[in-house]
Amino acid sequence: MRLGTSSPLAHTTPEDWAQRQQSLGLQAVNFHLTCGDDPALVDTTVAAAQAHGLTIAEVGVWRNMLDPDEDRRQAAIRYTIGQLELADRIGARCCVNILGARGPRWDGAYKQNFTRDTWQLGVQTIRQVIDAVNPKNTYFTIESMPWMYPTGRVPAPARGRRPRPLCGASGCVQLDDNAAALFL
Question: Model confidence over 79-106: pLDDT tens digits?
Answer without folding.
Answer: 999 999 999 999 999 999 999 999 989 8
